[in-house]
Amino acid sequence: MRLPDPDQWLRIDLSTVKFGPYFRCANKWASELMQRIETSLPGVFELRPIIHRDSRGFFIETYHKAKFADLGIADAFVQDNHSRSIKGTLRGLHYQLRHPQAKLCRVVEGEALDVAVDIRVGSPTFGRWASVLLSAKEQNQVYVPIGFAHGFLTLTDTVHFLYKCSDYYEPADEHGIAWNDPNLEICWGVSAPVVSEKDAKYPTLTQVPTEHLPELPGK
């Protein structure tokens, strides 16, 4: 399986990265929990934790509502999901329309390439994507806000992928975009991933009626 270069995995627009040690927070306690790293898509960002290690192992705080709010995540998460996948599995690109979900994603075993696509009608970055390499080794997370389609590709033999959602899963409200949409040009690094029958049937972004896509707030 041919993978993209690490630089392509992160897809970080260096002009948007703040090279200080931490994202500037109103309260110091948030910066002592996580380092916020911007991606090329405004609103989508990576979180790198402060890991406390000793001879016993490690300890990290993976979520703290008040501290995360200071980092820019004010969502009230109501559902936690956990998937286990074999290597080369691609899940996505998913979104809900009437019950939109912001997601906070991490990997606790293995590695996965996490991808977010801006599908908000009226957005200046409509149709653009960003990716972050999530791994159990780094214990990093990615925040995907409402209005973005989300998916991930597993890169190791076994991947345990965990994510928080800001609204409940509604099967009747589930929508998706084709993972291999040629116009999006997402650099997955694979040509034939393991994909569900449902995900394989999703349309390209241009084939989705605008009324079935989220709108940019204020438009």
Explain the overall architecture:
The protein is mainly beta and 219 residues long. Helix content is 9%, strand content 34%. It has 4 helices and 13 strands. It has a 6-stranded antiparallel β-sheet, with no helix packed on it. A 5-stranded antiparallel β-sheet has the order 9-8-11-6-13. Residues 6-26 have low confidence and may be disordered.
Features:
six-stranded antiparallel beta sheet; 219 residues; mainly beta; globular; 34% strand; five-stranded antiparallel beta sheet
Number of helices: 4
Total DSSP E strands: 13
End-to-end distance: 42 Å
Write down the oligomeric state: single chain
What share of residues is helical?
under 10%
- Give the class from helix and strand content and strand pairing: mainly beta
* Largest β sheet strand count, sense and barrel closure: 6 strands, antiparallel
CA-based shape: globular
Q: What fraction of residues sit in β-strands?
A: 25-35%
**SSE order:** HHEEEEHEEEEEEEEEH
Ordered list of secondary-structure elements with their pairings:
Layout (H helix, E strand, L loop, with lengths): L5 H5 L17 H4 L2 E5 L6 E5 L2 E3 L2 E3 L5 H6 L8 E8 L3 E7 L6 E7 L1 E8 L10 E7 L5 E4 L3 E7 L3 E8 L8 E3 L20 H4 L19
Antiparallel strand pairs: 1-2, 2-10, 3-4, 5-12, 6-11, 6-13, 7-10, 7-12, 8-9, 8-11
